[in-house]
Amino acid sequence: MQLGEVLRRLAFNGLDALQGGKLNRLKEVNKREIVQGVTPEYIDRRIEKLLDYARENSPYYRKYKGAECLRDFPVLNKGDYLEHYEEIPCEGYSNKEKIYSLSTSGSTGTPFTVICDGDKMNRVNMNFISCMELNGFRMGMKRGEFRVWIPGKNTISSWKSFKNNLLMIDISNMGDDALAGICRRIQREKIQVLVSYSSALTALSRYISRNKIEVKDWSVEMIFAMGEALPWDTYHLLTEEFGFSPVRSYGNNENGFIAIQLGEEKGYTIDLYNFYVEILKLDNDEPASPGELGRIVVTDYYNKMFPMIRYDTGDTGIMELKTDKKGRVHGTLTEIYGRRGSLLFNCKGEPLSIHVFMNVLIHLEGIVHQAKCIQWDRTQYELLLNADREKIKEEEVVGLYRRYLGEEADIRVTYVDEIPIQASGKRMVCENRWKEK
């Protein structure tokens, strides 16, 4: 435990206590409800209150005065929100003393900013801390956040960095020299928590393994994976290297963390205290059947400035709902396939997890530096390879992909010098350009 951690925790708790302890209460309730589940009455009450509020205060939602339930409201994606951006905010929001922005990078689609008030911002922050604390985080721990940090766009001030004990770790370059520098910084600055996109963790863990770097002298106590699903090979490699398991999460910048891994569970426990989650069919707005892959659609209970009702996140997954003996509802995302635009199908039309493509790359280490599989048609695929031309055996590489895509797969190989990392810090390993899907 570091002195800076203790002092920041004391400062946070002291300041919060002076203001009535609201943040700590919010955090503890959030943690309890994630673990214990919520009652059906809570769900019904939150939805009814949100819909009534939106119909009364949002110019856009006034047209749904006659809507009787949540399913009568439209499913909206980023494009829909942008089209009606001036109509959705609730009247009177411009008179608020403080307006906060929750922005996405636009790395996999359209840039998008959601506005909110201080109450929602507090909930976003305490939601994050709740998810972390459920997995061993202590308030005030020194965090290294892995992103592509762009000056003037998403960087944080020196004061905020100091206050939050947060260090910006730039991952715009993930070559060996850059990774060596990142490793030195983690050790030198005694970073306790790594918060990173899964693709960067994969690169880091493989670099540590390849160079036989000893991490026992590091101060790292927690690894928090966000963004695309963490490959199981990376999960196990990080566990072997650091002596503890990384934490997997699911969320977005617009809403906050929506689901979190608890302990060694394979699924992601949904935060039903803050969100109502639906899984809708891939090609229409009907509910998916239990165990069926579908679109992840989220209703945010607490953004009173910019209501997000039935927000199509662009991600896909499978959800399981159950009610325990006490009558409390628990939700689990048993599988997250990632964004619909990166959801590939094999020749039989069956969806493939992003894990498939990330695991293939792990087995090609040292030969294929980067790869991206693009689906152009039902059986037409293109494989972009940044590889060592002298070592690569193209037929073997294609064979590894065909094992998952199907024997009918027509796979065209294109060699490239670089597959650029996206603005968010993600490097997509697959992309669906098949318009029929």
TrEMBL record:
Record keywords, A-Z: Ligase
InterPro entries noted in UniProt: ANL_N_sf (IPR042099), CapK_Type1_Caps_Biosynth (IPR053158)
One term of GO molecular function: ligase activity
Keyword Disulfide bond: no
Coiled-coil ranges (or none): none
Protein's recorded name: Phenylacetate-CoA ligase
Organism of this sequence: Lactonifactor longoviformis DSM 17459
